[in-house]
Amino acid sequence: MSEKGRVHNVFSAAVCFVFFLICCQTAYGAEADDPLGSKQPYLQQIHVNEAWDVAQGNTNITIAVVDTGVDLTHPDLQPNLVPGVNLISPDQPPEDNNGHGTNVAGVIAAVGNNDKGVTGVMWRARIMPIKALEADGSGGEQRLGEGIRYAVDHGAKIVVLSLGLNKYSEYMSDIVRYAEERDVLLVAATGNEANRVKYPAAYPTVLAVGGVTPNNEPEERSNTGLELDIAAPWDVFTTAIGGSYEYMEGTSMAAPQVAAAAALAWTRNPSLKAYEMRQWLRQTAQNTEMPGWNPKTGYGMLRVDRLMKEPYMSDMYEPNNRKNQAKAISPSKSIAASFSDGADMDWYYIDAPYDGTIQVTLDMSRNLSVFVQHTDATGVLTSKTVHSGQTIPLKVTKGRSYLVLQSADRTQREEVRYKLTTAFEIYRDLYEDNDKQYKAFVLPPQSVSLKGTFHQYNDVDWFEFPVPQTGSLTITVATDTARIDPVLLVQKQGEKSITVDKADDGLPETVYLPEVFPGSYYIRVNNVKDYQNPVVGEYTLTIDYGAKLIDPNEPNNRWYQATAVSFDTPYYGLLDKPEDVDWFQFRLEEESLVQMRLSDIPSPATVYMNLHDSSVKPIASSMNDASSDTQQLSGRFQPGTYYLKLDTNKTFDHHMYQLNIMAKPLTGGYTDIRGHWAQDAILGLTSKQVINGYEDYTFQPDRPITRAEATAVLDRAFHWSKQKSVVYTDLDEEHWAYSHIARASQAGVIDGYPDRTFAPDQPVSRMEMTAMLARSMNMTGKHRGAVPFTDVNESYWGIGLLKQVKAEGWISGYEDGTFRPDQQATRGEFVTILSHLLK
């Protein structure tokens, strides 16, 4: 049988591991005296000591271990074994030649208080070994089903299944139903791949067991999802083949703890049905994430003490009579509850992982009709009346929806118990019906990513991708669940197909076609042949199409063929051959700041930019780092014609670079003063080297001028020669304006603040500007005359200076008669007044 058709035990390799013993909270209750008991802290974690006060075993029921067999002579197991069967070699006893089944059996029922090894959750039990797996821990689904059926037909009350598949099958579904109809409890491990719950744990009536860490947190490797019921410790120390003991880990070791707990609980209440036992285990679990059910730990962690001491409740979800009391349930599981009378309303909520449909089935203890109301996550309300045994579909949108159940007979007085079974079905994707090649969904001729589903039996999805011109294709299909093992087929119309199925369950498949030609390419996505049933999960199909592009500027391989460039316009090109060189030409009518920016350079290519003058003499160059997709060459250039040459160390033909050349005319060496009201003043003071701009060839006339800038301008304008040593907490001698500030301080033009700071980067107010300029001219102000502006008065600190400079015509206010002395002064204002003074 192929690997995909085989089940695997433990889900993690059946290997020993060593971990540090965890200091656990001391549990009060009966104690086993087995010498290796100190290596079993997980027993305290599930509080089994307190449970042993009530019962230490159960020899009235049989627990079947469908696995690799059991070490039949192990001294810590032999007293608790009953005859089983070997389905691999029917003429041989079910002897374990792998070790996994012996590990599981020891967790359940290593004999307690026998002065040997370890103790199981039960000291005394009836363990039926059923060998259904090979020596390597794998086996066929057929044998697994035979093992379960054998256990049911030979009196087992509990069947432990520490094994699993990603595959749903009608055969196994029928076997599970067979066990449920005969009131046999199936307990199965969810798996250890940090993925979805495996089968058979995922069937609605199988108790699915996940794993928790010694700190009661979800074990990150434990499979989780819609079908998870309960969790138990992941790490154990248990029996091993050859009469030995070993550390083991995995949900395979968690499941037998739950099975043993159920067997102990049946000593308290032997009349409980299997479905009621499932509910009792859920009811008494310890919440680890949040109250109620969740997909990480189900209903919580196993608590054997609660199971043995708390009464079974026919409806563990009460109180849930109102929406704000609604209890969480899985979209794909069977639960039990009851109506206390005709007025009892049961509210549940369901968090759907995708859009889809939930099939809801109600089975009641007597023939009764039930009113069902469902509110979808989008607010759509559906109301139906359901009879016992009837299944109804409810459309759901991804997110939270609410389900309300109430007896249709409002006069009902006695309690009516019911089983509620939900089964989630994923949505039909947007591309259906595309199950045949001639029905292929036609995709746009460009790179695309889409999500699809396998919503029906043997679902196959075909897509047609039109390739408009020669290029390359990379096609990848990935999935969010191990229940999908995607197969990818690609075929150009009329040619041989390529099929890829190299990776394991849940892993992506990729087809790379380095050269594709115009025409239709058909893409088929399907699940492997063995996984033909509908799957709750999505796949993502990604098509990366790279057209072999044509350079629109060719021929431009010589300077005299250079493409003429318009400024601030993108130009696209390729360097697709070793000898390919791209030339571009631009002309400047006046002195300008030119910025040549090259972007979208495909990795790992390096493109060389070389600028030439009108005589084709190199004058500037640049290159990008291989890790960068952009570069820039800029500078101040005189009028004339220029040529830009591009070449590369690595050719590319599926991705175009983008070239953009911008030219900003310069006025006095600045790009931003032409037409500005302060232009003349700026040009005049620049020519006298009193002011300068910034490194990017801007002056920024409307930007606030700082104290350091204003001081430096005044120092250059008035040529102060003397300076005094100044000490400010925020200004050291390395500051660019230190010497200017020292000379201005000596001249009495400016000073610091009382807190010994100078605040060189603080903007200057209009009043501070006026004061600095006036002091530079040795003005002291005057006190006679009218107040010149409406927003100052005689008590204002700078009123004397304002009167004097206003009278002499240096400054003027605003049209509304204000001066706005506290408003920040701009660089343009400052140089304009200074220019007027210097005249």
Automatic annotation (TrEMBL):
Residues 1-29 form the signal peptide. The active site is at D67, H100, S252. PROSITE patterns: SLH (PS51272), SUBTILASE (PS51892), SUBTILASE_ASP (PS00136), SUBTILASE_HIS (PS00137), SUBTILASE_SER (PS00138). This is SLH domain-containing protein. The keyword Protease applies. PANTHER family: CELL WALL-ASSOCIATED PROTEASE, SUBTILISIN-RELATED. It comes from Paenibacillus allorhizosphaerae. Belongs to the peptidase S8 family. Residues 665-723, 724-787, 788-839 form the SLH domain. It comes from the Bacteria. Pfam families: Peptidase_S8 (PF00082), SLH (PF00395). Keywords: Hydrolase, Protease, Serine protease, Signal. The lineage of its organism: Bacteria, Bacillati, Bacillota, Bacilli, Bacillales.
